[in-house]
Amino acid sequence: MARDRNTPPIRYTRIELINPETGGKHYRWGADDELVKETVGWLIAGQAFVDEAAGMADFATVLNTELRAGRDVLTYGVPTIDMPEDGVPLVTKDNVTPGSIARSEDHFTWPDGPAILSADYDPRDGNAVLSRDELWRQVVTAVPGYADHDVL
Fold it and tell me: Which of 11, 38, 83, 134 to pair with 48, CA 20 to 30 A apart?
């Protein structure tokens, strides 16, 4: 997707999982027909790459077609070091060595320019589930400036 040359790209970090080999959240129906969420794997090792998207539509394409489900995870900050094109090893904080980074505030920061803010919504027990439109209405009522930005 072509972008306006005056608008910098959205930069984010993609992590290829090494240990565990797969990760993320998996959903299944439980014995009582209740949706069960399971978190699979804590990130111990991976390879981090800084990727770019021309805008939110381009980022949506990345999410829907370019990521390997369960093998790639995203971090919306970027590493504080200069990143080689072939990425850098990402390890736990206790295992950082020269040339590697951890997924921590010591090694990541918000990028200059456009960035991704990811949020989720978990309705409280006993309350009605908000529709996407109603949730967005409540968000921009609380933070009106968000209405000026693209959203997926």
Answer: 38
Task: Take residue 28 and report the two structure tokens written for it.
Answer: 């299944």
What are the Cα distances from residue 133, in Å, to 64, 102, 138?
21, 37, 9
Q: Give the predicted TM-score (pTM) of the model.
A: 0.79
Contact 79, 107 (CB under 8 A): yes
Place of tokens 């904080």: 93
pLDDT in tens, 117-143: 888 888 888 988 999 999 999 999 999
Euclidean distance between CA atoms 70 and 116, whole angstroms: 20
> Could you say which DSSP state residue 133 is in?
H
User: In the structure, what pLDDT confidence band is assigned to residue 5 with cuts at 50, 70 and 90?
Assistant: low
Residues 131 and 143: their CA atoms lie apart, in Å, by 18
